[in-house]
Automatic annotation (TrEMBL):
Subcellular localization: Cell membrane
Protein species of origin: Streptomyces bikiniensis
Organism ancestry: Bacteria, Bacillati, Actinomycetota, Actinomycetes, Kitasatosporales
Chief location: membrane
Domain of life: Bacteria
Name of this protein: MFS transporter
InterPro entries: EmrB-like, MFS, MFS_dom, MFS_trans_sf, Sugar_transporter_CS
Pfam families in UniProt: MFS_1
């Protein structure tokens, strides 16, 4: 266990000389996982046709990954604490590469769905290991700000990069390459991690595995994610949807009760009850609801309403990626050591809300350069600025033995937020479109008029849902401002300082 230095004579440990090389391989692995969340979406129509997947089962190509990934994240984070982050990271990469090869070689529906579930399971090992490695590798406040700036830009912008890469691979090669492309990513990241990553000693949690906690959390999260996925296709009042939500509530309540009583919990409640980390998990999860819904609507709007090709659609998201990179690596990184995190997160979410507000003005003939481009720049700048301190704060001040599970909670809030965003905003959009068409159907008497009305109805639905996204981002900003009260990082080392010391405004130097 680390100890707080008790006199000025003590100095912080010498930083790992290979830490910046390690960041390259950790970031590469994170990019691969984030890419995979969207790259397959573009390829899905082609894959469905080749493999003979029915329309009813098509959603399972996405859902199988989401359920395995979301359901097993906490377990993956605990495994990282138990096995060691470096070993978990390399095993996760190897498994993800093997599952990707299986998906690319799929000859039927069952093989494809199995490969996607396996990708999700190994992704659940990989994602928390990557973030916790970053947390224990970068301990100097200024260096940590830079490292998390890069990581935050990838976490926020990787989904949009996936749309571009997916469009290219599908249009110029074939859908199988959206799976095969993961293999070189994984091989390079695993080889680099093996040679370069050095995990600090004394950070493992060797307590026995909390089996009841694993079962309850996995089943509870799977039921929650699947409930939102089912709501999108079957409706919110469907008996199966309601049953899944009720079952999820019971399982997750039982999980919390179990964690409060067992000697070695899967998710120590101290990780959640810390005011600042709780604020990060909640505000980030809500912000991701808004972002995932937007990816969906803009993709449909650009392809169906504006007639863009998959590649053009991908490139249309570039301003958002550019905004995220600038917001994360320039604004967030430069200001993180100068101002408290809430003064980056709250204004960041509000800036993104202004960008989203512009998109409520979408019409069939909306100019890309006049409205969509500036809206995306604002969204990217805002989310990049907010994501960067959020990623750092999520593992800030946490006991080293809890770093993996604290990292898993960040990914869990994003994964559940993504599932909620897709289902909730899609349902709102569909209802608004139906209402719009019902009111005006009588006036559309020719095929051309009916087609125009259909497009107008779609755009009206998107605008209605985006209004909700504006409100959700405003709530995220309010939560970040009210709940997150830690001060700016000062002093030397910020990681591995135990559960309390690093949460003060003044962060003491830590000696090992």
């Amino acid at each position: 266990m680390p100890k707080i230095a008790d006199s000025p004579a003590h100095t912080a440990p010498v930083p790992d000389p290979g830490r910046w090389k390690a960041l390259v391989f950790i970031a590469l692995a994170q990019l691969m996982v984030v890419l995979d969340a969207t790259i397959v979406n573009i390829a899905l129509p082609s894959a469905q046709q080749d493999l003979g997947i029915s329309d009813g089962n098509r959603q399972w190509v996405i859902t199988a990954y989401a359920l395995a990934f979301g359901g097993l994240l906490l377990f993956g984070g605990r495994i990282a604490d138990l096995w060691g982050r470096k070993r978990t990271f390399i095993v996760g990469l190897a498994g993800f590469a093997a599952a990707s090869a299986l998906g690319g070689a799929a000859n039927g529906e069952a093989m494809m769905l199995g490969a996607r579930a396996l990708q999700g399971a190994f992704g659940a090992l990989l994602a928390p290991a990557a973030l916790s490695l970053l947390a224990v590798t970068f301990t100097d406040a200024k260096e940590r700000a830079k490292a998390f700036g890069i990581y935050g830009a990838i976490a926020g912008g990787g989904g949009a990069v996936g749309l571009i890469l997916g469009g290219f691979l599908t249009e110029y090669l074939n859908w199988r390459w959206t799976f095969f492309v993961n293999i070189p990513f994984a091989v390079v990241a695993a080889a680099g991690a093996y040679l370069v990553v050095r995990e600090p000693a004394g950070g493992r949690n060797r307590s026995p595995l909390d089996v009841p906690g694993v079962i309850l959390s996995t089943l509870g999260l799977v039921a929650l994610v699947y409930g939102f996925t089912r709501a999108e296709s079957e409706g919110w009042s469907d008996a199966g949807t309601v049953g899944l939500f009720a079952g999820s509530a019971v399982l997750l309540a039982a999980f919390v009760l179990t964690e409060a009583r067992v000697k070695s919990p899967l998710l120590p409640l101290r990780v959640l009850t810390d005011r600042n980390r709780g604020g990060v998990y909640l505000s980030l999860g809500l912000a991701v609801i808004a972002m995932f819904g937007l990816f969906l609507f803009l993709t449909y709007y650009l392809q169906i309403v504006k007639g863009y090709s998959p590649v053009m659609t991908g490139f249309a998201f570039l301003p958002m990626i550019a905004g995220m990179i600038v917001g994360s690596t320039q604004i967030g990184t430069r200001l993180m050591t100068r101002v408290p995190p809430r003064l980056l997160m709250a204004p960041g979410f509000l800036t993104a809300a202004v960008g989203m507000l512009l998109l409520t003005q979408l019409e069939i003939g909306t100019s890309y350069a006049g409205l969509i481009l500036p809206a995306q720049l604002l969204l990217g700048l805002g989310m990049g600025t907010a994501f960067m301190p959020a990623m750092s704060l999520a593992t800030h001040g946490v006991d080293p033995r809890d770093a993996g599970v604290a990292s898993a909670m960040v990914n869990t809030s994003q994964q559940v937020g993504g599932a909620i965003g897709t289902a909730l905003l899609n349902t709102i959009a569909a209802s608004a479109t139906t209402a719009y068409l019902a009111d005006r159907a009588a006036g559309a008497t020719t095929p051309a008029a009916r087609k125009l009305l259909q497009l107008q109805g779609m755009v009206e639905g998107y605008a209605a849902a985006i209004w909700w996204a504006v409100g959700i981002l405003a709530v995220s900003a309010a939560i970040a401002f009210v709940l997150i009260n830690t001060g700016k990082p000062e002093g030397g080392v910020v990681a591995g300082s135990g559960t309390g010391a690093a949460d003060e405004v003044k962060i003491p130097v830590v000696a090992h």
